UniProtKB/TrEMBL annotation, chain A:
InterPro entries: Bact_Polyamine_Transport, MetI-like, MetI-like_sf. Signal peptide: none annotated. This is ABC transporter permease. Residues 68-258 form the ABC transmembrane type-1 domain. It is a multi-pass membrane protein. The keyword Iron does not apply.
Length: 265, 383
């Protein structure tokens, strides 16, 4: 008994870590397992028997792949837009003293703090009043807006912690202001920019509430999943979900490997 | 070195820098001869770094001009000046390895074949095996050498060093002082070195400008500054000085005869930087190591013609090669005396009555209208 308690005490951190990991991973495991299910009827809620039908025909459900490609397209453009704008805002806030700086500094957090459904509804009202047609562009504008704050936060932290002497050193070593930015400032800020971009992509890709309010008749992937859940859940949704999870894990692994190699050199 | 480089001289004319109502550097004239090792010495906040940054172009002077080898470079941006800087804490690029850090300046100037020069430079600073390391993985001394190599590879006309040894421990600092001196002698580039460490300035530089409150207090060779300080700040900041208030009572030959609370002292007229007027006030100074300490019982054996003051030993600390005494004397409650431990007199212990005596030629006279303690708070001010 004392041996067991000693063992538990010694490995408590590991046990807690594995427990947390299980808690985080379990839903994904369920999604993965049920992507190999062959349900009776329309709902994929009960395990029946193993099948790879859904994996061999991921676009077998009407409109699924169309909504998926639309979501990917929006996520890519929202990421580009939010990253470029957010990086510029972050540099402005970190580097320059201007009159509106304190206001911008706190307002930039609003999209993160505000309930999404409130933002969604008021944005829809705004578009309606302006007479804008709902669709791809309204969704993109909305996504860039809520991704911006995350990019600004990530990049600003990086820029603030950068030693200003590094840029002075570059100038001292014959780099013009443009060269200094490209050769020194940008590479050093890159991890922050990359973090902001990844976050933007993930947020944009799986946003449902704001998109639903501002999409009109356009259907993104999360909206498709929501809509089909009313009438039955095709197994293909699990296939797409599992594939997304695998891609995300791959990205993280590649990032960590690159980081480890950088540290070793 | 890959090719001989020659330094240029730097001339600052009425250069000044103000930030709002704060004046960092008062209008300043300074000439730094080509090929010299020049030190700007002072406590933090004295304007020495600002002066250096104005030469580098990283700070725009409020007034005045900067000339390099006769050419006015006041309006040139830093990347167009043939000047390179070794920054405080080095400012090495963390995203580049040692090789690319050193090659940075060459590449920006469009030099395509950098390999040979970078390798030679890394050999010079003994970092050939570390070319592919990131700077974060180097020790402080190695980072410092990368910073020097990164600047020197460009063959600047002037190399600016901003407290380059401040982050190193004492032993490494001594080693790098010698190293930098060797490199300077080898490449012949003009070095301008900013430091708050008076020993560092005196060891390395051939000319030292002592700065205080945005002004140059005194400029000269280290030995000259040490032996003939012109102000109380220089007297106290460079080493230690004993300063006593005195009044000029007479002149005899080339000497001034002074009256102090401790008796009469002689001062060669040429060693007095203050206006001489009978009845005028002076601060008379002497360095602690110039003084001989004799027990009061031996007062008769002190040769004639030496300056002498009587006192009582308050403290003594044995330092191996020398013993430092603090003597309480009239007019100077804490008279510092350093004695070499050659023949130690066992009677020289705290409480003993002693006679302090020294060659009048080692006495110096300063203007009495100054703060007698200026420059003594060095360690608190320095970062």
């Amino acid at each position: 008994m004392t041996a067991l308690t000693r063992w538990i005490r010694r490995n408590l951190v590991v046990i807690a870590g594995l427990g947390t990991l299980a808690y985080l991973i379990l839903p994904n495991v369920v999604v993965l397992v049920f992507s190999f299910n062959k349900p009776n009827g329309r709902f994929n809620y009960q395990w029946q028997r193993f099948s790879t039908d859904a994996w061999t025909d991921p676009c077998g459900v009407a409109d699924l792949c169309g909504s998926l490609s639309l979501s990917l397209k929006i996520a890519v453009w929202a990421t580009i837009g939010a990253t470029v704008l957010g990086t510029m805002i972050a540099f402005a806030l970190a580097r320059y003293r201007f009159r509106a700086r304190p206001a911008v500094n706190s307002l930039i957090f609003l999209p993160m703090a505000m309930p999404e459904v409130v933002m969604a509804a008021s944005l829809a009202t705004l578009f309606l009043n302006m007479g804008v047609d709902f669709g791809f562009w309204t969704i993109l504008i909305a996504h860039i807006m809520f991704c911006l704050s995350f990019v600004v936060t990530a990049v600003k932290a990086r820029v603030m912690s950068m030693d200003p002497r590094l840029e002075q050193a570059a100038q001292d070593l014959y780099a013009s202001p443009a060269q200094t930015f490209v050769r020194v400032t940008l590479p050093i800020a890159a991890p922050g920019i990359a973090a902001g971009a990844l976050l933007s992509f993930a947020l944009s890709f799986d946003d449902f509430i704001i998109t639903n309010f501002n999409a009109g008749s356009t259907v993104t992937f999360p909206m498709f999943v929501w809509g089909s859940a009313q009438r039955g859940t095709p197994v293909q949704i699990n296939v797409i979900g599992t594939a997304m999870f695998a891609v995300a894990v791959l990205c993280v692994l590649v990032g960590q490997l690159a980081g480890a190699r950088r540290k070793r050199s | 070195m890959t090719q001989p480089s020659s330094g240029g001289d730097v001339r600052l004319d009425r250069i000044s820098k103000t930030y709002g109502s704060f004046t960092a550097v008062h209008p300043l004239d300074l000439h730094i001869p080509a090929g010299s090792f020049f030190a700007l010495l002072g406590a933090s906040g004295c304007g020495k770094t600002t002066t250096l940054r104005m030469i580098a172009g990283l700070e725009e002077p409020t007034t005045g001009t900067v000339r390099l080898a006769g050419k006015d470079i006041t309006d040139l941006p830093p990347y167009k000046r043939p000047v390179n800087t070794v920054f405080q804490s080095y400012a090495l690029f963390p995203h580049l390895d040692v090789y690319e850090n050193v090659a940075f300046g060459l590449r920006r100037r469009g030099v395509t074949s950098v390999k040979k020069r970078v390798e030679e430079m890394l050999e010079l600073v003994q970092l050939g095996d570390f070319a592919r390391r990131r700077p974060q993985r180097l020790s402080g001394g190695q980072q410092q050498r990368v910073a020097v190599a990164r600047a020197l590879i460009n063959h600047p006309q002037v190399l600016l060093l901003d407290e380059p040894l401040g982050a190193l421990d004492l032993k490494l600092r001594r080693q790098m002082q010698l190293e930098l001196g060797r490199i300077q002698a080898e490449v012949g580039i003009t070095f301008v070195h900013v430091t708050h460490d008076q020993e560092e300035a005196m060891t390395m530089a051939d000319t030292v400008a002592v700065m205080n409150g945005g002004r140059v207090e005194q400029l000269g060779a280290p030995a000259d500054l040490y032996e003939n300080p012109g102000t109380t700040f220089v007297a106290n900041f460079l080493g230690t000085s004993n300063l006593i208030e005195a009044e000029i009572t007479d002149k005899s030959g080339g000497d001034l005869v002074l009256t102090t609370a401790g008796g009469r002292l002689a001062l060669p007229a040429g060693r007095c930087s203050a206006p001489v007027r009978t009845g005028g006030k002076l601060l008379v100074g002497v360095r602690p190591e110039k003084i001989t300490l004799s027990h009061a019982e031996d007062a008769g054996t002190v040769p004639e013609g030496r300056n002498r003051i009587s006192g009582r030993i308050a403290e003594s600390s044995f330092l191996g090669v020398s013993t430092q005494y603090v003597v309480t004397a009239p007019g100077c409650p804490e008279f510092a005396v350093y004695e070499q431990n050659i023949e130690r007199d066992p009677r020289l212990v705290p409480g003993a009555e002693v006679v302090l005596h020294w060659n009048p030629a080692h006495t110096f006279g300063l203007d009495a209208a100054q703060n007698i303690d200026a420059g003594t708070e060095r360690d608190e001010e320095a970062v």
